[in-house]
């Protein structure tokens, strides 16, 4: 679940006609006033601020978004294939910071808490915990 980074009271600080695009709506949204919308009815207004909260936004441009995702992730997949998982986690902060599970344990506290599952803190204090 995404944390609410923008609270309802924050909208009052925005100019009328401002727009928020909540790209985390698939995980519950990062704007407190967000709710999922659709491509056929994509926006709504709260306190003068237009909200765009279409779930699965990349789905509207599936081919393009697939290429973008592959281009962004392939170098890391290649790194893990070449170095192995353990070395990649130890040597690359970007990979380590992306860990949710490692060796069968949930090592991301937020993931564990959001699913009500145990968090494995054996990595606490490492830069990826």
Kindly summarize this structure in a few lines.
By secondary structure, this protein is of the alpha+beta class.
Write up what this structure looks like:
This protein is an alpha+beta fold and 129 residues long. 35% of the residues lie in helices and 12% in strands. A 3-stranded mixed sheet has the order 1-3-2, with no helix packed on it. The radius of gyration is 19 Å and the shape is globular. It starts with 7 loop residues before the first helix and ends in a 14-residue tail after the last helix.
List keywords for this structure.
three-stranded mixed sheet; 129 residues; globular; alpha+beta; 5 helices
Count of helical stretches: 5
- N- to C-terminal separation? 18 Å
Query: If you compute it from the alpha carbons, what radius of gyration comes out, rounded to the nearest whole angstrom?
Result: 19 Å
Largest sheet: 3 strands, mixed
β-strand number = 5
Low-confidence stretches: none
Strand content: 5-15%
So what's the overall shape? Answer: globular
Q: Give me the strand/helix succession.
A: HEEEHHHEEH
Q: What is the oligomer described by this structure?
A: single chain
The average pLDDT is 90
- Lateral strand order in the biggest sheet: 1-3-2
Structural class: alpha+beta
Helix content: 25-40%
